[in-house]
Amino acid sequence: MGATIDFLNVGFGESTVIRLEHGDESFCLVVDAGDSFVGDGARRCSPSDYVREYAISHIDVLVLTHFHRDHIGGVLSLLGGVSIGEIRLHVELPPALMSVELNRYDTPMLASLSMYAELLHKAKEMCIPICKMTRVNTLELGEVALTFLMPDPAKLMQLEQGLTSLDPARLDEQQDMLGWIDRQLNETAMALLVRSNDEPVALLTSDVGLDFWKPYEAEITGVCLMQAPHHGDRRSISEELLDKLAPRYIVVSADDEGTYQLPHLEFDQLIHRCTDAKLVYTEAIGTTHRIIRMDISNRRLNLID
Question: Which keywords does UniProt give here (predicted)?
């Protein structure tokens, strides 16, 4: 069975494609979709570019780890361009935000809210099933298993309460709450563990915080590849976590422009000081690859131009 994990260079943002092929049967799962515009450089590869170039006509599952624009913006161009079996998410917008046309792009958080509402409306119009995840869940796909790791329920409840408190007519007066929601989205993101033959292969970390991993330490120990949390944020990684995971590879999804000062220089220093892991960036100064590909079967990493 052919099984790969592709980390796309979407600039500052994240999008990962997991593909399984066995004879005439195939399965495609996309985790996040980068921003709405990934740039026109030759190194960039949006999810829409990817499905076109690899002649993918159907995505079985589209996973949204949280609704920051650098993770969901590219979904809108996928909708209608390729059929989607279902969308998996764990945070919905309250009726008050879904009942109006937000169309606010004057701050990053308002842009994220507006994009999320638009894609949810469009998915429903297209009758794409939306599955709200409420607990840890595993997709068993032969030798490969994909486990959705959920955030702290108390933090998730606080986020939902914050979203419910928003008044579409008074958003300009609720900047403090919007700022809190912005930060809380990272704290309540989903992560994804990829196993093969019951061994942990890859950990897709989205933007989760350091305390996310406590309930999952036994499951993730010894994982071969870890995606750096929050684009190489030093606050999202620790020497203790690195010792437990002992990854062979660490993939950093970031651009080469230092957006939001990420990845942190201290992150790189910690990795080199505490591990022998190979550190690979979706984009860095001088790189030419568009995709970082892991073969799930042999655990090898390749750079694809």
Answer: Hydrolase
